[in-house]
Amino acid sequence: KHTVTTTLQCAGNRRSELNALGEKTQGLCWTTGAVSTAQWAGAKLRDVLKEAGINPENPGCEHVWFMGLDPPYDASIPVKKALDAYGDCLLAYEMNGDTLPRDHGYPIRAIVPGHVAARNVKWVNKVVASNNESHSGWQRGVQYKGFSSNIKSFKGVDPSKVASVQELPVQSAICEPLPNSTVSEDEESVNVRGWAWSGGGRGIVRVEVSNDQGRTWHTADLKKMKQKEGQEWAWTLWETDVPIPQQQQGNNASDSFQICARAIDTSYNSQPGEVGPLWNLRGILNNSWHRINVKVDRDN
To answer: What is the pTM of this model?
Structure first.
């Protein structure tokens, strides 16, 4: 039995911010909650494939499919990930120390750390080695592929020419304070907390928080789990205090201000500042700075 703690994030996490630009995307209108972290235990996928006769040095295939008990959904990953001795892929039968719950994929769930949650197929009843990707629409269709912002309709679009989403980009989100909550000017500062994560086992080296649209930044304290370099599958929690803009003589301070956060991973990828250029019809892969507005009670 092998155990791994990993974060699973939907590619459509934060889709609501893309919709807020004025052009509606396709899919559920997620805010920042399409993400979770858990401890999984089960058999290493690498070991199962070796037992089935696949040689890691010469596998004779390019992809590994996970077929579930809820067709037509299935998905696949590159065989290099499936056989990676450091990739920690599992056929899991336990979650958080208990038998895998039905809602989370009992009896067997594929766990593919560092990859989009859609590849972590539930209710697995068959694993297939193939030279091709899975044939499902969630693999070969438009659902989990990143298209240019100039694509306004999928009519006439050939999704086979676009790479399937596997690893996800660096991401972070503010959990507290909540959007549009109110803080008192008398407090002078507000405590800001959240999470950060990057795909592919890349860890988080820094999270920065701004109260002035990114002109200046405050470095957050990271609460890192103990994880091996290159296998940092789980999110990093973070926290910092940022000043509340004060009203001074001759300064008409606003009754609200914006807090934004950005994360930098171990490859020094940084979240982009603007959400606009990231718009795409499927509404996926939004990893722009996370921004929330906070109201200030200036009643003295």
So the answer is: 0.94
